[in-house]
Structure formats: structure tokens, C-alpha cells
Amino acid sequence: MTRQADAAAETVVDITGEKGGDLRLSLKGPVCLDNFSQVQESLQSLWSRLQPRSLTLDLGQVGYLDSAGALILVEFQAQARERRVPLEVKGLSPRLRDVLEIIHPEGLAQPSLRPAPQPPDFVSLMGQGFLSFVQDFIELHIFLGELLFALGRACRHPGEVRWSEVLLTMKRMGLDGLPILSLMSVLLGMVIAFMSALQLQQFGATLYVASLVSISMVKELGPILTAILVAGRSGSAFAAEIGTMQVNEEVDALLVMGFDPLGFLAVPKVLASVLVVPILTVYASFFGILGGLMVGVALLDLTLYTYVNESYLVLTVFDIVTTLLKVAVFGVTIAAIGCQRGFKVRGGVEAVGIQTTSAVVASLFMIIVIDSVFAVVLHYAR
Amino acid sequence: MGQAGEPIIVVENLTARFGPNVVFEKVSFEVYRGEVLVVLGGSGCGKSTLLKHMIGLYRPAAGRVLIDGIDVNTRNRRKLEELRRKIGVAFQSGALFGSMTLGENVALPLEGHTRLSASDIQRVVKMKLAMVELAGYENHLPSELSGGMQKRAGVARAMALDPEVLFFDEPSAGLDPVTGAGLDNLIQNLNAGMGTTMVVVTHELASIFAIAHRAVMLDKSARGIIAVGSPRDLQGRRDDPRVFNFFNRQWARPGAGGS
Questions:
Q1: Which one of A69, A242, A259, B60 has the fewest beta carbons within 10 angstroms of its own beta carbon?
Q2: A39 to chain B, minimum CA–CA distance in Å?
Q3: B127–A32 CB contact, under 8 Å
Q4: The CATH number of the domain covering residues in B7-95+165-247
Q5: Whole-model pTM?
């Protein structure tokens, strides 16, 4: 009997007999998930309402019975046993018996092996947060140590580095990211030029727009913009890639084949990042100055020559060299954090998402911290 | 039950193509209401691809699949919803949601498609988990379980709504023989009792002989069906070495042509 054939029929629970006496129950029609609550209700109410001395359950006219319906019947039998009411089942066809056999009564009685997970309270959340921060800090430093070791080995044996992988990563990080980086820098340069011109015009000092854009793009905004973009595009990609490899046991496979996962996966990414991020920063600064130039020449009546000259004169070699050094550190940081978070993935796909997010957030945090440190140190170093 | 029934699934001239790579061409067969049909064949012959076409996950390059008269690729939302309630799919590795406990995984279709109270849902969930011998595990996360347990939990979730048609992708692969036999027994009971139609993709011989009413055999080089029939018939068939070797577990040296 299929659900289809029985869908239209109605379920009836027929009860004959008196309260407190021998009751005869007969079920007619389908007993399944669709009328689970109805059948259950009429069987449950029977205990208190009629208080039977003995029961006869006639299943001869039951139509479609699914596992949910079988659950009701099995539980009903268990209740009868509990209440010491003799229960006789009649009309049990082989078809019904097959369905009833699916239910494991002992499994129904089995309590959960563990309690349902409770959301943690405020204090334990704070504690966990602090502990995981400390744990994170320690793990990151262990990873940095291992990474330095792997990089050192790569320096001694350059032949062992997967240079094709380095080039591929450089293309993905650099060339593929260039269009969006250029657009953002041009717009940023234009906005800075425009906003500062509004103020400087009041003093007739629009000429200084050029130097302002130039200094801010080269020393701060270019590097920060590049680092944020790389963290979002590539840092997250590193974490997700290595994390998924971790889930698929690919990292374990590397290990047992005698490769160092760090040397194989992290070193090419870090090398690519160190090489690409400075180049991208140069582009970002250049396009930022270009954006400022467009505003300066088109709206502020500066000549091309004056603008370029002003931009050029205000920069020193010291500024440019320290900026390149800073962004190289950014590059290492982003790649290292991305890889570390990837290796940290344990368990399933959910962890990949968590660690990818964490890679981006941690990278952004470290970028700002490193940038501040550079600003202070350079101020006194000069 | 079996052959005498009307067809519930009709596969018509189904062609699966990924770019230039044709997996199979013009495959046609029917699945009758209440039967256990096994789709079998060697690795890479497109068993799983066929299954994914049958449940509407892949769009066919040509041909169509009807389940109870509804095209699995229909654009009619209501028809599609009706269809989805009729079928349950147990995926190869369970496909459990990693962020939910086993209980929540099994409860999900019940919460979405029935109006049962929360306590009733909990009882049905307990029963379903007990059916696949996972009683007591409702508060465990999938990642804390072994592969075989995850697979069984996936079966429990597929059965949550007692669908008319159940699809299994490699149900017993990766299970120990005892658990695998238990799953076979479960499939037989569900089929015999509720008349649930089953489409099972597998290449486990023991399981095929235990559960299948009929088998459809695919072959990679033929790009389609090479044999249809009951497993016993196919085992005795000597005219096609590919079928004979499969059912008698004989290794054919590539190019030697079997026997």
C-alpha cells in the first residue's frame, strides 16, 4: 500500500467497550507523518479517559503505515506494558510487521550520550576569549619561528623552492589585483586633492595640493590601501586554500610523502607576497598621484609641470626606501597570517570559513599596528 | 510490488555531457513503483552522474527524467516542491551540515515540511537515528563521528519525511560488513513495509544480491546501459564478458576482452 493510494482516505480510531473494562480499538485508514498528531492524540487521551483493564488493538484495516506511524504504535505498546494493561494486537499483516520491525524500541529509550550544547554565559565567554587570544599569540609565534626556519632553508637551497608556484602566486596577487587597486588609488588621489583644495583655496595655497597628495600617498595611504586589498584578496585566499587542503587530508599526504608542508605551501606564498606587495604599492602611489594630478590640472588651474615638480621635490629617498621596507613587512605579515590560519583548520568546512575570516581580521589588525610602529620609529630615526 | 507496478521514474533518452566529454548517451529505463533498482558499473562509468541527473542536480544535455509524472528540471515552483517532498537522497559521504548536531540535521526537513510540535519532532528524530543504529548521538556534531556513522546519519536525514522514492549513492561503501548488512536490511524493510521505491547506486556485489529486484548496468566504453535484469540473471549471463566479469568478480586484463 503506498501513500499515493491512501492519501485521500481518512484515519478513524474506533473504540468499543466501556470505561474501566475490556476495550477494543480498531485503526482504519493511513497512519503516517501527515496525521501523526491526530492519531497520537486519540491514543494518548484514551489512558486517562477510559482507564482500560485490557486492550485489543485491531490493525486489520490500517492502510499506509510509515515509520512515524509505526513509532506511535510501538510507543503505545510500551505504554500498555508500563501500565500493566494486557494488550493484544490483531490483524498484523506481514507488511505492517515489516514496518514495525524498523523501529528499535531499545533505541527509543536510550538517553542522549551527552546533553544538548548550552550557550556559554558571559564570564566563561570572557575567559574563553582571553584564553584563545593568548593561545593565538603563542601559536602565531611558533608558526613564525617555523616559517623563518623554512625560509632560511629556502635561502640555503634555492633549488628546492617551487619557483613556478611563486610566479603563479605573484600573478594572482599582483597582475590580477592591479585593475581594482589602480581604480581605488586614482579615486582616492582625486578625493584627497579635491577635499584639501577646498581648504587650501581659502589661503591661496592650492599649489600645496600636489605635495600633500604625493606625501600622503607614498608614505601612508598607498601602503595601507595596498595592504588592505592584498589581505582581502590574497590573505583570505591563502587561508581558504590551505584550510581546504587540511580538511581533505592533502597536508597530511604531503607530510607522509616527506615534504615539509611549510616549505611546500607557505614559503612560495610568503616569497611571492614579499616581492609583489612593494610593486603593488609603487603602482598604488603612482595612480594616487595621477588622480591628484587630474584634479589639479583640470580644476585647480595648476600646470602639468608645476604639479609634477611639486610632487617630486617633496619626496626624499629616505621616504621611499622606508616605505618599501614597510610594505615588505606588510607582505610577510599578510602571507604568514593567511598560511597560519589555513594550517590551523581542524575538522570540517565550517572551520575553513572561520579561519578565513580570522586571517583577514588579524592581518588588518597587524597592518595597523606595524604601520603605527613604523611611524613612531621613523619619526625618531630621522 | 516489483515489475507488475506502474513506472514511477521514467528516464528518457538521457544524455550527460560535460563540455566535449560525453559520459553516457541516450539512456532510457524505468523504475517501477515499489521496487529496489540498483544502478551498477565499474568506476567512472557515470553511476553517480546518472543519479545526480535523476534527482535534478544536473541539467541533462538531452532527454529528460520524470518522477511520478513531474519533470525533475521543471521550472514550475509548486511542482518542484511537490517533487522534492516525494524524494529523499542519501549522499555518498552523508552531506551533513557541519554546524548542526545530528539531531538538528534530521529535524531540519521535519521542521520545514511538517507541522509537528517540537517534542514530536524530537521523538521522530530519535526513532530515525535508532533506525540507523545511532541512538543517543543526537547531540553530537558530524565532525565528531566516523565516516560510516556520518553516512548512516545522512540516510536517517534522507528518510526523515518517509519519502516515496529514496536515492542512495554508494550506501555501503566505507561501512564495515556488519553495519553494511544492517543498512541492507533497513532498505529491505522500508521497501517491503512502506513500498518505498529505492534507487541505489553501488558496486558492492553482496549488497546487490541482497537488496536488488532489478539492476541496470552502465559501462564506460559503451557510454550507456549494457544490461538490465535481476542480479541472478545477470550473473549467469555469459554472452557479455563485461557483465560476467563484474558479477563474478573477475579481473579482465585491459584489452584482453574478458572471459
A1: A259
A2: 12
A3: no
A4: 3.40.50.300
A5: 0.72
